[in-house]
Amino acid sequence: MQEKISVIVPVYKAEKYLNRGSDLTIADFWGIKNVDGDMFNKNGVSLVLINSEKGKRVFDIISKETVFKEESLEEALKYNPSIISSSEPHKARNNFFEDLNKTDNPDFSRLYDKYCVFFGKSLYRKAIIKAKRIIKRILNK
Fold first, then answer.
1. Spatial distance between the Cα atoms of 83 and 64, rounded to a whole number of angstroms
2. 110 — phi, psi (to 5°)?
3. Are 111 and 122 in contact (CB under 8 A)?
4. What is the dihedral of CA 107, 113, 116, 120, to 10 degrees?
5. 50, exposed or middle or buried, with CB in 10 Å at 0-12, 13-18, 19+?
6. Local structure of residue 81 (DSSP, 8 states)
7. Average pLDDT over the chain, rounded to whole?
8. Which of 12, 45, 50, 73 could bond to 29 as cystine, CB 3.0-4.6 Å?
9. SS3 of residue 46 by DSSP
10. What is the pLDDT of residues 72-104, one digit of tens each?
11. What is the pLDDT of residues 47-81, one digit of tens each?
């Protein structure tokens, strides 16, 4: 059986902190290793904010299929500031949309190479290099 791990933060009683429009909010729980090392999972841990009584009822149903532990809102906010405010847009965001809108038929591979850069290489190119290494390793066995 595949184990699902969720961490639940009940915020429906703490509305003074958050004003959410949904019954549940699901996000990655960044920093869980620092908050609760026992809940850490290398594949990630979900942060579930229960924003209403209805959300609590729904979570009570789905929690039967999860491993979960209640953590404080303060601990969740410490490593997940985007819960309260949106992150800043990337500095190249406006340039990307300008390039995208220059034509009715944009060249997505060019845009990808130009804007999806990770440590000096586009993510696409980095994936190709990684795939080639794996294939070479397999063929050399």
1. 25
2. -65, -45
3. no
4. -170
5. buried
6. G
7. 78
8. 45
9. strand
10. 888 888 888 887 777 888 888 899 899 989 988
11. 888 888 888 888 888 888 788 888 888 888 888 88
